[in-house]
């Protein structure tokens, strides 16, 4: 059995926590409280599938109540187990703290293969799971707010919302019980691409730091960087898209059936359409096939983005990784052994616990939108446009010159919902990146960026617990 199969995901999170805790001044009791999962709900419920009754195994873990509601996705996969759900819930706590989103961490999962069920059967399973959460007060706009994750999306979130509102009639903020909903059901524009866009903003900010780039032996800026993305799901697809649009070259894309390589760069949308038509990303025109997907991780590149599942880079393959920067778009793609190897090799690992926080950041914006009952931009869009038009007209009158129509459009544009969401996400990722790198630079003994991120998270959660005054 390989190392990464044996490794407990929750133990890996605890190992990273302990490594960072040494660089903080908190009482051991507070550190122990931060580490533990506050509430663990393991459930079995029957659902009629065809003529048979199936007993479905599912979980919801609330890791921390230092801030409420708790927040975290729900995944549908056969790999779902308590260890994984606890680890992901803990990461959510630290992630929310780093990006200043006022939630405690949570996570949920149902142990099923969603491909084996019809949409009607999936709906029955999802609604029954929601019913179980409501019974034990594990869902609600002020208690616990789920979101999509691996194997779930807008459709499942709308089923959760409908079940919740039908069981809680008249609850005015019911829309805020779940995020990642369709826009027509109270969702927010920009949510779908949020995680991939957040990964791009975070790495772009790292690439703008001359000292870190000098250490990595790279020129500053994203332009011209050779990028490899593993996973062409929602996160990988959008990360590849924004890197390409930002001037980088996506030289390889990997999926479970294999990988493709083209030194001149790949267009993720063309690859996506090819895969939709052919059922595989292999044999993409102009690209070289790589039959073993994992081999793509070991190609020479500047930035490697693992955007699939956990533990794909471990003690066995880490020595062969040639990337200068690894951006963890997935949750837990590196094992602690891989971290140690990369510290020695001088490879910069930009950690998952903040880099993929775009999803929860925009979920927070969606939750706020649901509580305020008004769409972003509705109040100010026209006012801003009218004001900008007036300023522009004055300038043209005073100078006797006219601005060309393309520039005029850009200057006059008032922000819509997606613009404001993108702007809020960009501000969040830049702020978090600087906060972590400042903590890292402030203490030369901190070995890597992941430990620095944990230090920032522990300090924020510790401060919350201390200020709550719950320790007599």
**Can you give the mean pLDDT?**
90
User: What is the terminal separation in angstroms?
Assistant: 47 Å
The number of distinct β-strands equals 12
Weakly predicted, low-confidence segments: 1-5
Which structural class is indicated by helix and strand composition?
alpha/beta
Range of strand content: 5-15%
Explain what you see:
The chain is 46% helix and 15% strand. With 472 residues, it is α/β, with parallel strands linked by helices. Strands 9-8-7-6-10-11-12 form a seven-stranded mixed beta sheet. A five-stranded mixed beta sheet has the order 1-2-4-3-5. The radius of gyration is 23 Å and the shape is globular. Mean pLDDT is 90; it is low at 1-5.
Draw up the topology in text:
Blueprint: H1 3-6, H2 9-21, H3 28-35, E1 39-49, E2 52-62, E3 70-76, H4 82-98, E4 104-110, H5 119-135, E5 144-148, H6 154-167, H7 194-207, H8 210-216, E6 226-230, H9 234-245, E7 249-255, E8 258-261, H10 268-278, E9 288-290, E10 303-306, E11 325-327, H11 336-345, E12 348-350, H12 352-355, H13 358-372, H14 381-399, H15 405-412, H16 417-442, H17 449-468
Parallel strand pairs: 3-4, 3-5, 6-7, 6-10, 10-11, 11-12
Antiparallel strand pairs: 1-2, 2-4, 7-8, 8-9
């Amino acid at each position: 059995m390989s190392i990464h199969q044996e490794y407990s995901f929750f133990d890996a999170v605890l190992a990273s926590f302990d490594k960072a805790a040494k660089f903080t001044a908190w009482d051991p009791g507070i550190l122990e409280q931060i580490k533990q999962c506050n509430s663990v709900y393991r459930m079995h419920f029957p659902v009629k599938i065809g003529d048979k009754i199936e007993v479905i195994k599912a979980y919801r873990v609330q890791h921390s109540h230092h801030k409420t509601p708790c927040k975290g996705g729900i995944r549908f996969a056969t790999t779902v187990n308590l260890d994984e759900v606890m680890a992901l819930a803990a990461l959510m706590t630290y992630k929310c703290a780093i990006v200043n989103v006022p939630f405690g961490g949570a996570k949920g999962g149902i142990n099923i293969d969603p491909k084996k069920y019809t949409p009607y059967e999936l709906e029955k399973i999802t609604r029954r799971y929601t019913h179980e959460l409501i019974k034990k007060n594990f869902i609600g706009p002020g208690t616990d707010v789920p979101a999509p994750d691996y194997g779930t999306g807008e459709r499942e979130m709308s089923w959760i919302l409908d079940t919740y509102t039908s069981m809680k009639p008249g609850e005015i903020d019911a829309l805020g019980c779940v995020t990642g909903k369709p826009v027509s059901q109270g969702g927010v524009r920009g949510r779908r691409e949020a995680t991939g866009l957040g990964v791009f903003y975070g790495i772009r900010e790292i690439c703008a730091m001359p000292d870190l780039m000098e250490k990595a032996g790279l020129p500053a800026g994203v332009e011209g960087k050779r990028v490899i993305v593993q996973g062409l799901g929602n996160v990988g697809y959008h990360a590849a898209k924004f890197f390409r649009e930002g001037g980088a070259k996506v030289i390889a894309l990997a999926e479970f059936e294999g990988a493709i390589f083209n030194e001149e760069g790949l267009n993720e949308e063309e690859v996506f359409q090819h895969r939709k038509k052919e059922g595989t990303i292999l044999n993409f025109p102009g690209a070289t096939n790589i039959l073993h997907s994992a081999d793509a991780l070991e190609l020479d590149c500047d930035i490697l983005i693992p955007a699939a599942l956990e533990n794909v880079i471990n003690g066995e393959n880490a020595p062969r990784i040639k990337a200068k920067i690894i951006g963890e778009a997935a949750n837990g793609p590196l094992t602690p052994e891989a971290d140690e190897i990369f510290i020695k090799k001088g490879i910069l690992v930009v950690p998952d616990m903040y880099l993929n926080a775009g999803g929860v950041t925009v979920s927070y914006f969606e939750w706020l939108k649901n509580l305020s009952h008004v769409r972003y931009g509705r109040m100010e869009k026209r006012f801003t446009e009218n004001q900008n038009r007036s300023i522009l007209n004055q300038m043209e009158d005073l100078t006797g010159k006219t601005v060309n129509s393309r520039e005029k459009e850009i200057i006059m544009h008032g922000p819509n919902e997606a613009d404001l969401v993108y702007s809020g996400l960009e501000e969040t990722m830049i702020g978090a990146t600087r906060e972590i790198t400042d903590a890292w630079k402030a203490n030369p003994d901190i070995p890597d960026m992941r430990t620095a991120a944990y230090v920032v998270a522990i300090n924020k959660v510790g401060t919350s617990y201390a200020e709550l005054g719950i320790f007599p």
